[in-house]
Every structure is written in structure tokens, then in C-alpha cells.
Amino acid sequence: MRKNWKKLSGVGLALLGAVLSGCGGDGQTAADAAAKPALRAEGMVASQATVAATASPVKSRSVDAVPVPARIALGALESNKALLAPVLPGPRMVGEARAVSAAATVEQTRQQLQWSRSATGAQVAALSISAKEALGLRLGVQVTSLPESAVLRVYSQARSGTVFQISGKDVLLHVLRNTQAAGDSAEARTWWTPDIGSDEVTLEIELPAGEVVDTVQIAVPTVSHIFTDLDLHEDSAAQTKINESASCNQDAVCDSGFTTQSNAVARMLFTSGGNSYACSGTLLNDAKNSGTPYFLSANHCISTQTAASTLQTDWFYRASACNSRALSSTTTKLYNGATLLYASSSTDVSLMRLDDAPPAGAYFAGWDASGSAMSNGAAIVGLHHPAGDMLKISKGQIAGQTSCVATEGNQFGCTGSTGNFYVVGWNSGTTQGGSSGSAIFSGDGRYVVGNLYGGGASCTNRGAMDYYGRFDVSYAQGLKNWLGGQSTPPSGGGGVAALDNIVRILQSLRSN
Q1: What is the pLDDT of residues 360-397, one digit of tens each?
Q2: What pLDDT does residue 119 have?
Q3: What are phi and psi of 221, to 5 degrees?
Q4: Cβ neighbours of residue 184 closer than 8 Å, sequence gap 6 or more
Q5: Which residues pair with 450 in a beta bridge?
Q6: Which stretch of DSSP H or E encloses residue 468?
Q7: How many Å is the Cα radius of gyration of the chain?
Q8: pLDDT grade, residue 9 (50/70/90)?
Q9: How far is CA 118 from CA 86, 157, 497, in A?
Q10: Are residues 126 and 313 in contact, defined by beta-carbon separation less than 8 angstroms?
Q11: ∠ at Cα 502 (173, 182), nearest 5°?
Q12: What is the DSSP code (8-state) at residue 388?
């Protein structure tokens, strides 16, 4: 591993490429290729061995150690996207890209950063960016050069004793993974800070004694201005704003028959092109019960590695009691993104592997790829986060199959009575933006059988249909390579599958 990004992008990437080519082929043995993938997997509660064992990135520290930051203030958001977001098709838009002209280049950001020495001899500088009326901010930190030994902290000045902390090495590994998947672009070299639910965010950089400050070459040309309250802090307005999805949505906590399955579902927040979005996703088991955190969502939510890298997931984001407006105290946030394994518009499916171990109590959902149980009239259950709200449950039935293709602006059209999508009608509950990517389960909740593309169903249009990519088709086309029980999933074949080798190398580097 090289010292900083400039060196990493040359020699370091060449060395990594040599390692990858040395792996050879797709990494599968003849026995693996001949083995038939399983067509079903049962659900599994996360064991102690599979839950997070690493230290939390959220740290406490003395406020006496907080440096005085340079400050950049943005005005209020001028566009009307916050008003349009509830009716736009596709993932629920919750944040808009905004330019930060005062930190748009490395040189401008260098001029902002005022370095000082701490009592330990370390050098520290900080940059505070605020946006009027923002309900959260994600800073897009574009990396040109960064020492591995650097420590980056993210916090608000109002809560400066609680920080999100990450090493320069982990930021570089994050950027390396993006550039290997998408090429060396500005977007790939951008690390997005977590959303901490504040209208002001401070980025602090600490260098150990002896490190030269000129090795820090970063810019913050863009922020994502969050205009929907997604904050989970106890003092947040979210405590009174929750339950804002449409009135016919049913609180999942009120249905004790699907409590276990609810523990597989997470609310997603991700950033693409500087805009931020909410979707829903489901933790899946594999046929080996390996405890690998495979995560199912929609291609129209996350279809690139750069978007997957920005993923935050909120687990157990639900009411503390049936129909209460209080958020459960068990709600848990994971910050570290995911590796994109497979994405296809054919069934609008996306499969990722979370870079965090799932929280204690999470459930790895079972699935059925046989397709035999999903005839017309079969009962199904949906668990999802409409409008980014607390977990809701919808119940209905399969009304048929059809073929769907994307058109423009997240719109799609469906024709025929056969195809890669299930047509679903609801008896109770519905879906909204933010439900995208969520799974439908068989009526008994035992198996995942599809993932949400979209549709016309709403509280005011009860007879309209929704459309779900068929899990059996997604599985046959690609998901079987990771979920099907073969001893070695595909790697090195190009595209997103090639990231399997890369992420193993990155994990090894991270531990060194």
C-alpha cells in the first residue's frame, strides 16, 4: 500500500492489477462449476460470529480537543425539489447537490485549512460547512492525495464531543475500490461523509507528528443538502416527524407474525451525483448459512459501485410500540457502504455485500428461487420504508406476471401476461417512494420472492398494481453465483463481479 493517492493511482493500482491477474480466470474450480446451486435457503438469525465485532466509528472525545475551524456558509436551498420529491418516480429523493465554490479545488481548500499543533505534536485543521435550513449535510471530499496515517473526523459544532472517525488508509481503500470499478474520475475519488442530521458539518483532519501537511490534497466541491429529516439523534425533530408516510400504510410493529422478517429490512440512504436518496433493502442468507451480509435492493436505486460506497443503512428503524410516534431505542446505523456484486435492469435487481457486519439481532432472510410457489393468487407480504418512514407492512397477492422495460426519468412500461416481473395487488397497506428495492415475502414470511420496481398503487388508488422483479429469474441470471452455495463465488470475470477479488485484497490491506 502506497503512502498517498498520487502514488497509489500509479504504482499501487498497477500492483493491485498484477495481483488480480495472478488470481486467474474466475476463481472457480471444475467442481464448483459443475455444482448445481440450491433453489432455496432458509432464514437465519445473525449469530454472535456474524455480528459486528469491530470498534464503532462513532467516538467520544473531550471538547477541549476541538480545533477552531474555517467556516463556509451556504444559503437556503433555492430549488423546489424538496416539494417535488414525494411525487417523483423511483427512489425517494431526500437531498440535493450544491456547489461549494470556496472549496472547489485543492488549492482553495488548502487556503481554508489552518493547521495547528496539538499537545501531542500532531497537526490538526478543520473545515466547517453549513447550509441554511438543511436537515442534514453530506460533504463530498474529493481526494487527490492523503496520507494513510491521517485521521479524519466528522461532527457538528453543536455536538463536537461525538465524532465519526475514519483513517486516511480506509478512505484511500474506499477510493481505490471505486476507481477499480468505475475508472479514475472525480466521482470515484470522492468520499462522502456520513449524514449526521445537522445543518452544519465539520471535517477535521489530524496528521501525526512528522507528517507533511502538503500531502493532504483534498477538495470539497459539493455537498448533498438533506431536505428530509432522517436524523436518528434523541434530540432530533424526527421524533415528531416520523409516521409521515401515507395514512393507509400499516405499522409493521402491529403485526407480530412478521417480527423476525422485519429484522432483515433496513432503510437505505445513498448519494449519487451529489443528490441523496432513500430506498429499502433486505439482508439475505445464502445456501451455506455463511453469515455473509448479502443485501438485496433495486437496480434503479443502486447500480454502480460509486453509489454503493456511499450507502448508510438504518436497522430496526421502526416504532417502539404499535402505532406509536416514538422511534425504537434499538435503531442502529451502519455507515461503511457496500460492495456491488450484481446489478441488472432485467429484473431491476441489485445485490451488494455490506462492508459492515450486521447488527446484533439482524435476520438473514430466506429465499425461494424455484418460482413454483408464486402462482396467481398466492399471498405475499411486503416490508418496507415508504417515504423513508418507519417500517411498514403491506399484504396482498400475486395478480400475474408481465414484462417491464425502463423508459425515461425512472418511468417504466409493462406489457403482456408473462415476463420477469410479478404484478402485485394490495389488500392492506401500499408502497411509496422509499419503498423501492424492498422485498416481497411468501405469504407465510418464509421466503423472499421478489424486489420492488414500482407501480401505481397508493392510498388513493387502491386498485392499482405494483411490479416486483422475480427473484427466481434474478437468481438464475446471476444471484446464484453468490447465494447458491458454491464454495467460491465468481471473481475476476469483469464488471462488478471482479470486485470480489478486489474487496478481499482491500480487507487484507485494511487489517495491516
Answers
A1: 999 999 999 998 868 899 999 999 999 899 999 999 99
A2: 84
A3: -75, -15
A4: 9
A5: 440, 470
A6: strand 466-470
A7: 23
A8: very low
A9: 47, 19, 45
A10: no
A11: 75
A12: G
Number of helical (H) and strand (E) elements in the chain, helices listed first: 12, 30
Coil, helix or strand at residue 21 = helix
Res 26: pLDDT: 38
* Host H or E run for residue 140: strand 136-145
Say which residues have a Cβ less than 8 Å from residue 402's Cβ, sequence separation at least 6.
Answer: 414, 415, 416, 417, 418, 419, 421, 423, 467
What mean pLDDT do residues 445-454 have? 96
Q: Helical H runs in 293-429?
A: 305-308
Mean pLDDT to the nearest integer, 145-171: 97
pLDDT per residue as tens digits for the range 187-224: 999 999 999 999 999 999 999 999 999 999 999 999 99
Specify the residue for cell string 395487488. 425
Cα distances (Å, whole numbers) of residue 356 to 37, 378, 435: 26, 35, 22
Exposed/middle/buried for 324, CB within 10 Å: 0-12, 13-18, 19+? middle
CB atoms inside a 10 Å sphere around CB 57: 18
Using CA of residue 144, residue 148, residue 151, residue 155, what is the dihedral sign?
Answer: positive
- The DSSP-derived string for 317-354 is -SBSSTT-SSB-TT-EEE-S-EEEEEEETTTTEEEEEE
Pull the grid cell for residue 122.
500532531
Q: In whole angstroms, give the CA distance from residue 331 to residue 266.
A: 10
Per DSSP bridges, beta strands 363-364 and 44-45 are: antiparallel
Query: What is the distance in angstroms between the CA of the first residue and the CA of the last residue of the chain?
Result: 10
Separation CA 160–CA 59 (nearest Å): 10
Compute the distance between CA of residue 156 and CA of residue 193 in angstroms, rounded to an integer. Answer: 12
| Degrees to nearest 5, angle at CA 503 with 500 and 507 | 140
d(CA 102, CA 271): 22
Q: What is the pTM of this model?
A: 0.89
Among the listed residues 494, 481, 478, 496, the one whose alpha carbon sits nearest the alpha carbon of residue 348: 478
Q: Answer yes or no: are the C-beta atoms of 98 and 82 closer than 8 Å.
A: no
Predicted confidence at residue 35, as pLDDT, reads: 66
Residue 141: which residues within 8 A CB-CB, separation 6 or more? Answer: 152, 171, 190, 191, 192, 193, 203, 218, 219, 220
Nearest residue to 140 via CA among 183, 185, 180, 83: 185
For the chain, domains (ranges, CATH) are 30-54+260-366+474-511 (2.40.10.10), 58-226 (no CATH), 368-472 (2.40.10.10)
> What is the C-alpha separation between 224 and 278, in angstroms, rounded?
13
Closest CA to 163 of 208, 217, 205, 115: 205
- Residue entry with cell 479514475: 184
Q: How far apart are CA 211 and CA 392, in angstroms?
A: 50
How does the average pLDDT of the chain come out, rounded? 86
